[in-house]
């Protein structure tokens, strides 16, 4: 056997996260995570709070631009700091360990990540089951059972192989883009034939109130959520300095164009009043546009939700993985499977939490908390980027976002956080209080004593490590 053969064999046997995500999987990862149930739910919220067809389309376009601004900021962060982990890593590198720990604390301990995953899982189960029982109500137990089955499939794929998880994401992304095209084409054809009556007087602002307009943006931004997930897997992206910015720009421009065109199609086939009365806008549209294929749309929406769920489970455990690697979480979660090269313990931790939330149904209140936490820590991360630029001007930045974009996005993020404090002070204040409970925990378990010895014994247990067949990375991947 030659020296090169020995080297190749040694490389295969070394336990570490492989760089297996190229440009296409990276772009599909973002698109597939962003395009979930939001575009099929949020149009109603955008319209009711904007007050007119024209203004709602403008809100959709501006939300896309704002999301692109945020994604570009994260492209700079992702190429400046080569660790995986997304929000957690950037807060750690720019503002220090306490904000980073609080991000982990909120995400796992107060269940904001499991809440979002539960919500998407339930949307998947609902769109699979309800068409078989229409027009009657579908059994809640059956919806939850199907939701758990979809969740189990996603977890199994992400535990089995990074390659299979990325292939699943690519496949589901093409399916959901097909669903969007299936909506866009009939709408554009009808519009070309002169069906423009719903766009007459499109910018009437009689029903617009300024205090509700921010809520329209909030609904739109919910549909664009997920543009930051690629940054959770930076260490697994091939040539990240090129592929992260390119994937972000291509995917967010694609999503924005598709979202605006989908809403144009909705308004071409439905009046604003009909859209507001519909609980499932895409299904109502399908009944209008192509009666014979109307049953296909709920199935495609379900697969769209499955793609968003897969993207979430692919990215989120990496934040927990990196946090454990930095000593902010039990060390078992910084280990990867010796053959599969997946962060198995971090993926598995989320599974029972999501299942419990699906069964108990305590989700919707936590969704509001997750939204507040998301925007607050994104604002801190981009603020940290600006501070880091000022303090370390010579730090290598292969991709640098224009300052005006970074400042605009950071100001808007803090405005969204401030608005939520104004519009819902009780729940948002409680969210702030729960976030701050992580401060004493950090000082007791990390700052002085790292983790408690009892936790160490439990989570560093050799038997648990052998059972899961996991170990620490043998080479540095950042």
UniProtKB/TrEMBL annotation:
The keyword Transferase does not apply. Coiled coil: none annotated. GO terms for cellular component: membrane. It is found in: Membrane. The keyword Transmembrane helix applies. The gene is si:ch73-352p4.8. Keywords: Membrane, Transmembrane, Transmembrane helix. InterPro entries: AA/rel_permease1, AminoAcid_Transporter. This is Si:ch73-352p4.8. The chain crosses the membrane at residues 21-42, 54-77, 89-112, 132-160, 172-192, 212-232, 244-269, 289-309, 342-360, 366-387, 399-422, 428-449. Pfam families: AA_permease_2 (PF13520). PANTHER family: AMINO ACID TRANSPORTER, CYSTINE_GLUTAMATE TRANSPORTER. It is a multi-pass membrane protein. One of its GO terms (molecular function) is L-amino acid transmembrane transporter activity.
